[in-house]
Amino acid sequence: MKDLLLKAKHWHYFLLTFGIPMCMHYIAMDFLMPNYLTIDVDTPPNFDGLLNYFQYMPFATLMMMLPIYGWMWAVGNGLQKYIPDHLKMNTVFFNIVLVLSLVFYAGMAYAMTSAMGAYLNMEYFESLIDSDEMPDFSGIGKYFLGYLVFFIISLYCYYFSAKTIKTAEVKEQVSFGSFVTEFFLHWIFYIGIWMLQPRIHKIMDEDAEFFDLDH
Question: Of the four, 29, 62, 151, 168, which is 20 to 30 A from 143 by CA?
Answer without folding.
Answer: 29
